Amino acid sequence: MSLYREGLDDSIVALATPKGIGAIGVIRVSGVNSITIVNDLFKSKNLLQQNSHTLHVGLIRNGDEIIDEVVLALYKNPNSYTGEDVVEINCHGSAYIQNRLLETLIANGCRLAKPGEFTQRAFLNGKLDLTQAEAVSDLIASNTQASKNNALRNIRGGFKTDLSLLRERLVYFSAMIELELDFATEDVEFADRSDLKNVVTELILKTNHLAASFKLGNVIKNGVQVAIIGKPNTGKSTLLNSLLNENRAIVSEIAGTTRDTIEEVLNIDGILFRLIDTAGIRVSTENSIEDIGIQKSFEKMRSADLVVYLFDLNTTSPIDLENVIADFGKEAIKFLLVGNKVDVTDKELLSSFSQFNNLLFISAKQNLNLDQLKQALVQQVVEGDINIDSTIVTNVRHYDALKHLSSALADIELGLNQHLSGDLLSLDIKKCLYYLGLITGEVTNEEQLDLIFSSFCIGK
Ligand SMILES: Nc1nc2c(ncn2[C@@H]2O[C@H](COP(=O)(O)OP(=O)(O)OP(=O)(O)O)[C@@H](O)[C@H]2O)c(=O)[nH]1
Ligand SMILES: [Mg+2]
């Protein structure tokens, strides 16, 4: 921890809003001398005499040079984001002004903040726990509504509440067993083994549930890979273009137009989808480039989270479709069946597909029923036992700790079944407490902290 405490005696500065032109920009200064440093440049009033949580309008000057007219927001420790004295300078949104302000603040004793350093200070000053600090990083990186909501929920501590409750119960048992060890010669049992077993069973359920939410959490953060697969000329590229509303992929009536995969992102109802247009699959071609493309299509089909199998309603028989369904079933591939070119398909032909459930009829070219398809995509993500509004683990580090936690809990369970002695049980309980702590930041090492905070951007 010392490494991190060391840096806390200086004042850091960074632009908190994006670089470039906007109506205003915000420069954030945090640290023991932050108010004094800004006060030296702000001639309108004495900031040292002002209350916390107040706003002050005035000029920032560097000697004779007027840099900008600004609004200062004052936060006194410990009631600020970082827990230190903080001044937020709302200046005009010009890159020149912002740079001049930063240069002047640095010349007067501030240091440019490293990525994530404001949040790191918040953590070190006890304002945030690790899950909250990491959620800030996720929030900054989030690019869809669903992932933003999830990050916000983690910042508010949804995740931590669950884990802290679990931790408290384990701490109790750990203490009781320690007590038993002190009275070892008297053979007493303070920790009721069947109570402990109940707690462990409950913990296992909760831990596994949180770990299972990781896949969904990851999907929200990184996107759902959707491969559009089908025979040549079925309209896969047309579909990609229509969903994106732009001419991204080349479309032609020549079979084998798409030779390489094309990937684009699409946000539907706040969920990020990574749509992949692939080369049409056919048995064998004379063309080696097309063959390589087809090979890639198969790879994408297997690695994607979901396959949209697109077929031409006019050239596909129900038996063809049965075979496709069987093939997907064999490889345990999640898929949606989508019949294209409904605009040029007669009704009788359509009715021959009535035996299939969940079949969608669309026209990629005429934009028919594309909303239905989008809803079906969302449905695939949301359905299942994990509710999107519940606590979701999105962080690989948390996931990893949950996995270890789960196996440590299994060890306790086994130990209880085998009537293991208190000192051995105690070791397993401590292991659980350690992994729980890794997530909430109660035990951690410096390297880990470094890694977490360096993924932030400067100004946060
Ligand atoms: N009538 C009709 N024609 C369509 C529809 N969708 C695509 N097409 C036409 O079908 C032909 C093939 O479309 P593409 O999008 O290139 O098909 P693809 O599946 O990407 O083909 P490959 O890349 O060769 O595998 C083009 O002439 C499209 O205009 C549709 O909904 N209705
Ligand atoms: Mg194509």
Q: If you had to describe this structure to a student in words, what would you say it looks like?
A:
This protein is 47% helix and 17% strand. With 460 residues, the chain is of the alpha/beta class. A six-stranded mixed β-sheet has the order 3-4-5-2-1-6, with helices on one face. It has a six-stranded mixed β-sheet with strand order 8-9-7-10-11-12, with helices on both faces. Helix 7 packs antiparallel against helix 8, helix 7 runs antiparallel to helix 15 and helix 14 (396-417) packs antiparallel against helix 15. 37% of the residues are buried. The model is unreliable at 1-6 and 384-389 (pLDDT under 50). The structure holds guanosine-5'-triphosphate and magnesium ion (MG). Magnesium ion is lined by residues 236-237, 249, 257-258, 277.
In short:
By secondary structure, the chain is of the alpha/beta class. Helix content is 47%, strand content 17%.
Quote the distance from N terminus to C terminus.
20 Å
Structural class by helix and strand composition: alpha/beta
Give unreliable regions as ranges: 1-6, 384-389
Q: Give the integer mean of the pLDDT values.
A: 82
| Helical proportion, percent range | 40-55%
Number of helices: 16
